[in-house]
Amino acid sequence: MKTLRIILWDHLSHDISSLSDLDMQMDTILMCETVDDCTHVKHHKKKLVFLLSAMRHFAQELIDKGCTVIYTKLDDPLNGGSIAAEIKRRCTDTPFDQIVITWPGEYRSIEVFKKLRNERSIPIIIREDKRFLSNLDEFKRWASNRKELRMEYFYREMRIKYNILMDNDQPCGGKWNFDSENRKVPKENLEIPQTYSSMPDAITQDVIKIVSREFDNHFGDIQPFHFAVTSEEAQQAFNLFIKERLSDFGDFQDAMIEHEPWMYHSHISFYINVGLLDPFYCVKSVEQAYYDGRVSINAAEGFIRQILGWREYIRGVYWLKMPEYKNLNFLNAKRRLPEFYWTANTNMNCLKQCISETKENAYAHHIQRLMVLGNFALIAGIDPVYINEWYLIVYADAHEWVELPNVSGMILFADGGLLGSKPYAASGAYINKMSNYCKNCHYNVKEKNGLNACPFNYLYWDFLIRNRKKLQSNHRLLMIYSVLDKKDKASIDSIVNDAKIFFHELDKLPYDNSKSVS
Predict the structure, then answer these.
(1) Gap between the Cα atoms of 64 and 185, Å rounded
(2) Within 13 A of 470's CA, how many CA atoms are on the CB side?
(3) CB neighbours of 220 closer than 8 A, spacing ≥ 6?
(4) Are 69 and 56 in contact, with CB atoms under 8 Å apart?
(5) Nearest C-alpha neighbor of 410 from the set 348, 343, 325, 339
(6) What's the pTM value of the predicted model, to 2 decimals?
(7) Rounded distance, CA 296 to CA 273, Å?
(8) Distance of alpha carbon 404 from alpha carbon 96, whole angstroms
C-alpha cells in the first residue's frame, strides 16, 4: 500500500508512530515549511529558526537512511502556504492509497486533518503519539467523575505505573513531592554553569537568513543562536545538564537572578516537545543519577515531576477540555496586553529582566513565567486571549497543548480552578525573596502604598478586592481574605486608589499590534 506519511515540525523523532511501519520502497514522507505555521501567531524569530532548522536536519537524517522525502521549503515558488494545501498538491501529483500522521500538538491541526479526511477520497489515519507516557483515553478515564483535576494525584499514579523513584510500593525518600525543598533563596556569588551552546552549521545559517528576511517584523532576537537542532546535539545538552546543573537544580529551582536567564534549569523542553529527546529516557536518566548518589532526591524528584507529572497532565487537560477551554475567562479579565510585554520598557525591574531575557533567548524559566510575567497578567486583569497569544509567540518550547493550560489554568485561573487550586497571585515580597530584582528597581518593594511603592504590593490586594465574589469561598484563600478584612478603611482606600492610578497610566500605554495577530 502506497502511503504518504506526514511529519510536522514537532514530530521530529525517528520513533514517531507515523513512521512505525514505514515501507522504504513504497512510502513517501512529506515535510512542509509553511507561512501558515510560521504566522498563525507571529512566533519569536529564534523559535522559528529552531523549528525550521530542526526540521531540515531531521529531513536530511531521513534521506540519509534511504527514505523518500518530499520537503517543501518556505521559498519554494509552488509552496501552497499551509499543510492542507501541500497535502492536496502532493496527492494530485502522485496517487497514494492512504495518508498517515501522528496526533498533532494543536487543536486547529486536528480540525485541518478531519476536514481533509471529509474532503478527500484518500483515507487519513491519525495515530496516537506514543512519545507521551499517558495516552488520551487513559487520561480521560482518570479524569472522569473528578470535580478537580489535581496534578499531584495523577503524578502519583504515573510514578507507580512506571515504577519511578519507588521503594516497593512507597515513594523514595518517604514523600511523593519534595517541592518544599526546592525554594531556596539564591545566594550571592552563585557559580552557574553556562547552558549548552552549539555553533550554527550551514543549514542553520541558511534558516537564519530566511527568517531574518521573511519574518523581520516578528518579536525577538535571532543572534546569538546556540540551540541544539539535532537529536545528537539535544542529547549533549541533556548530558551537560546532568553533569553540571542537576545537582543544584532542586535547591534553586525557583530562584531568579539578574542577567542569569538559564540558572540551573535543563533547557530541554525545546527538544522534548519537538521529538529530539525522548521524555522517558530523560526521566530514567535522572532517576539513575539519584540511585548512583550523584544528585539529591529533591533535585531528581523535582525534575521528574515536571516531565512524568506536569507535562503529561497538562497535555491530558488540553485535549480533554478543548475547544471550550480556549475561551474560558472565569475572572472576566478584559485589559489588553501592555506594550512593555514586547519592549521591556517598564520601571518594574522584575518585568524588565524577564521580558528582556525572553526577547533575547525565546526562553524564561517556569518561575519567571508564573510568578513575574504571569503574576502581573493575573493581578492586572489581562484578557486571556492576549496573554495566551503572547506566551505562544515568545517561547521556543511553546506549542498550544502545553502553553494554553499552563497560562489559562495555572497562571490566569481562567478555568475557575479546574487545573489549579487557587490563583497564583503574589505581592512584591515573593519576588524580593526569590530574586535580586528588587535591588535595582525604580520602586521600593518595602513600601505598600504610594508612587514609590512596588505596584505588585497594592495590585495584589486590589486583585483580591476586585474578585472577592468569585474567590472568597476558595478554601486556600480563606486566611488571605481574613487578613484583608482586618485592614482598616483607610488602608483599603489607599490600595484601591493606588491601583486606580496605576491602571489609568497603564491603559494610556499604546498597544503594539505589530507582533500580534489579534
Answers:
(1) 49
(2) 16
(3) 44, 45, 46, 47, 358, 359, 360, 362, 394
(4) no
(5) 325
(6) 0.95
(7) 26
(8) 35
According to DSSP, residue 99 is labeled E
Residue 270: left if φ>0, alpha if ψ -120 to 50, beta else—which one? alpha
Sign of the CA dihedral with 143 first, then 145, 149, and 154 last:
negative
Q: How far is the CA of 46 from the CAs of 19, 53, 311, in angstroms?
A: 28, 10, 23
- Nearest residue to 56 (alpha-carbon basis) of 24, 9, 18: 9
Let me know: does 347 contact 441? Beta carbons within 8 Å.
Answer: yes
Higher pLDDT, 182 or 75: 75
**For residue range 196-250, what is the model confidence (pLDDT) as tens digits?**
999 999 999 999 999 999 999 999 999 999 999 999 999 999 999 999 999 999 8
| DSSP 3-state of 407 | helix
Q: Write out the E strands in 287-360.
A: none
Given a contact cutoff of 8 angstroms between Cβ atoms, the answer to whether 138 and 163 are in contact is no
For residues 512 and 339, give the distance between their C-alpha atoms in angstroms, rounded to a whole number.
6
Side chain identity, residue 190:
L
- Cell numbers for 441, please give them: 528597581
Distance, in Å, from the CA atom of 196 to the CA atom of 422, rounded to the nearest integer, reads 36
Rg of the chain over all Cα atoms, to the nearest angstrom: 24
CB neighbours of residue 287 within 10 Å:
22
Question: CB under 8 Å to 262, separation ≥6 — which residues?
Answer: 192, 194, 195, 363, 365
CB-based contact 396:46 (threshold 8 Å): yes
Between strands 170-171 and 166-167, the pairing is antiparallel
3-state secondary structure of 451: coil
Tens digit of each residue's pLDDT (9 = 90 or more) over 354-403: 999 999 999 999 999 999 999 999 999 999 999 999 999 999 999 999 99
28 forms bridges with which residues in the sheet?
Answer: 4
Distances (CA, A) of 11 to 7, 118, 358: 6, 24, 25
127's enclosing H/E stretch is strand 124-127
